[in-house]
Amino acid sequence: MNRPDWYKYGWSLDIKNSSWTEDTENQVEFIIKALGLKGGERILDLACGYGRHALALARRGFKLVGVDITPAYIEDATKSAALENLPARFILSDIRDVSFDNEFDAVLNLADGAIGYLENDEENLKIFDVIAGALKPGGAHFMDVCNAAHARLYFPKTNWECGEKSLALAQFDWDEATRRMTYAGWNIPYGEPAQKPQIAMEDADPVRLYDLPELKEILRQRGMEVTAAYCDYCGGAATDREIQLMVCSRKRAR
Hints:
The chain has six helices and eleven strands. By secondary structure, the protein is α/β, with parallel strands linked by helices. Strands 3-2-1-4-5-11-10 form a seven-stranded mixed beta sheet, with helices on both faces. The chain has a four-stranded antiparallel beta sheet with strand order 6-7-8-9. The longest helix has 14 residues, at 71-84. The chain is globular.
């Protein structure tokens, strides 16, 4: 099993070649519509990676702040924003160490956004504290996570995704006692000699998953209310039959 702080290590810009990054533009358009963004809002992207969503939103005129723990990602995102003169700033930090107070119109946690990655339940809940604290009253939040209800019903399972540049293979398992998913994946680029996948579940990354009722309660305790939930970026309603869970919520106005 990986070390408890596995989330600090092993990330690289090779992730840009992953098939699931190819849908970024469609995801951004969906988020704008789902949150009812009008243009020009100030947005915080937590665990922003190399800034693929933040940069796409900045190109549309939104004002972005991205936070990530991986130096290579923040360096790459900062260079990309500077090259295009985009209204985006990127901060190298653990999410728990940033402090914003009623500053943002919207907060995003995309491609998990580090939700469930931390050492225990208490630490994981601190991310929700940061979300609620950063939002202005009436501000909106969008998260894209894996659904614990789906994991409970359908794991263990394998999955494959056929992208334009590569084939992504994944293996998922589930520990009901800890409510943690373990995940291991392998990417097979097209046009290159294929290598035998090396998927070792004993080295898989553990992620604490939440179902929709649990997320509703966590957010309610922080003055937020869920407004919609989806299973895909086409607007399908949330269902336990699908692994993906996108949740929109809003901070109550004072």
